[in-house]
Write a structure and sequence with these properties.
mainly alpha; Four Helix Bundle (Hemerythrin (Met), subunit A); 3-stranded antiparallel beta sheet; 57% helix
Length: 229
């Protein structure tokens, strides 16, 4: 893929190259100048923390001469209370979507059930990103959010869909609910939807445990630091 960077309103482009199953993959994170300016001026510790980690772990493939300089903060602060509050909202939304999805069992309801499951997992991934990275992205395809989470934290939720059956289910899950307006809603697979629901419940429980462990570790670090002082 070739990008005409000079024609784009970009300030920075960071990439991370990974070797996965003997193949090289490249994750690109592009930041508009307006976004970088806002993040630089804001007193939001989590936004600063996020940008610092991107610069620290990524490769700067492009930097506009007119862009805003971003420096790595060696002791970038992270507001855990702010991110946990955001997580609590997201996990509540995920629970509600899962509960609604569980009430839909027929073939004619399968696609609507999948749309609710999509919304549930989207809420969960957004919450994980906020707690572990401080990043709160705008709306993106679910597959991209999975990749972004894996890139920034090494949490790979896609491993729940590693086999052929799982990949088929992930296609069902990652279909944007906006596409429902173009589909025959009453044609679906209730069997696949139930299997997909089981996968989503596993991700829900797994994510709650990840957050619980992360919060406990941060509390221990806070306690240890206060003892040293």
């Amino acid at each position: 893929m070739f990008l005409n960077l000079q024609s784009m309103v970009l300030s920075h482009l960071f990439i991370k190259v990974q070797e996965i199953q003997a193949r090289l993959t490249c994750n690109e994170l592009m930041f508009k100048k307006t976004l970088v300016v806002k993040a630089s001026k804001k007193k939001n510790e989590n936004q600063r923390y996020f940008f610092s980690k991107i610069i620290e772990n990524g490769i700067c493939a492009y930097e506009s001469q007119k862009g805003v300089a971003i420096e790595v903060q060696e002791k970038a602060n992270f507001n855990t209370e702010l991110s946990v509050s955001y997580w609590q909202d997201r996990i509540h939304g995920a629970e509600v979507f899962l509960q609604l999805a569980s009430t839909l069992q027929t073939v004619s309801q399968a696609l609507i059930k999948n749309a609710l499951l999509y919304q549930s997992i989207e809420q969960i991934v957004l919450g994980l990103l906020a707690v572990f990275t401080g990043y709160q992205p705008n709306r993106f395809p679910l597959g991209f959010l999975f990749d972004l989470l894996n890139y920034l934290t090494d949490i790979n939720l896609a491993d729940e869909f590693f086999d052929d059956e799982g990949r088929t289910l992930f296609k069902q899950l990652s279909a944007n609910p906006e596409m429902l307006k173009f589909k025959m809603i009453m044609v679906g697979s209730s069997v696949e939807s139930r299997l997909l629901e089981e996968k989503c419940i596993t991700i829900y429980n797994r994510s709650k445990l990840l957050i619980q462990n992360e919060i406990e570790q941060r509390k221990l670090k806070t306690t240890d630091n206060s003892k040293i002082i």
